[in-house]
Specification:
36% helix, alpha/beta, six-stranded mixed beta sheet, Rossmann fold, five-stranded parallel beta sheet
Length: 260
């Protein structure tokens, strides 16, 4: 199987130092970043159906830039003024620094953890110090965040669905001429089946790669043969697993050529 074109079902990396670019150069393959899913924010009208009044809260818990974008957007659309005393609890410094897009960073009460997880000791310590705050926790419609640490600590927080993950449909004239498809979530697999109900992996000779156990399970449930699996002790990242797969395919191609 000669690999010429790889689809990575994620947004294009912001850095030109991504390992994917090195792989493309070393193995002479074209790598296309084309998400099978996309995030779309709820409208203020849709959010009101949850009967959550954003003006009632004194703090927010943010796990990503997407969460931050939709929180500030809904506040603006709902005409909710965010006071200077408002507090921001972020799972990482990267998310905390992103807030500069919306607020004067140095003049606000911003706290963040080191690990990027909700049960981060540094983040929980800050939240415990401000335990009396009424916190809003923006999440997606298919959120999997484990907030049990918040429940155990007795924080006054409310999950609010502010955005949803939907299929990023292919257009009729969009080419689908890939040799490898890399998936990172179960909904990506569902999107593949939705966009291409007659998808025949064997007939089209397409290799499939999955990142994470849930994605792998979804692919196998959909009847797909998974050729590239990560993470694992041998392949901690999708790029390392892809690199190995391409190298092995090149070896097989050389053997075929030698026999002719």
């Amino acid at each position: 199987m000669k690999i010429k074109k790889v689809l990575v079902s994620q947004p294009k990396p912001t850095s030109d130092k991504s390992p994917y670019y090195t792989i493309a150069e070393n193995h002479h393959v074209e790598i296309v970043f084309r998400p099978f899913i996309k995030v779309e924010g709820l409208t203020a009208k849709e959010f009101r159906q949850y009967k959550i009044n954003l003006a009632d809260f004194t703090a927010v818990i943010l796990t990503s830039r997407t969460a931050a974008d939709n929180f500030f957007r809904l506040c603006e659309e709902s005409r909710v003024h965010i006071p200077d005393t408002f507090k921001y609890f972020c799972t990482s410094e990267a998310v905390a620094l992103y807030l500069q897009k919306y607020i004067v960073y140095r003049k606000r009460k911003i706290f963040f953890g080191k690990s990027g997880k909700l049960n981060d000791p540094q983040l929980l310590a800050a939240m415990t110090k401000h335990k009396k705050e009424k916190m809003i926790f923006p999440v997606s419609d298919i959120h999997t965040e484990d907030s049990s640490a918040f429940d155990e600590a007795g924080y006054d927080y409310t999950k609010g669905v502010m955005y949803r993950t939907v299929s990023n449909d292919f257009t009729p004239d969009e080419p689908f001429d890939y040799d490898v498809l890399l998936f990172f979530s179960p909904i990506g697999i569902a999107s593949l089946k939705k966009n291409f109900p007659d998808f025949d992996q064997e007939k089209q000779q397409i290799a499939v790669g999955c990142f994470g156990e849930k994605t792998l399970a979804a692919a196998e449930d959909a009847g797909l043969k998974v050729d590239i699996k990560a993470p694992s002790p041998k392949f901690p990242s999708m790029t390392s697993a892809l690199e190995f797969f391409l190298t092995e395919q090149e070896k097989l191609e050389k053997k075929k050529s030698a026999k002719k």
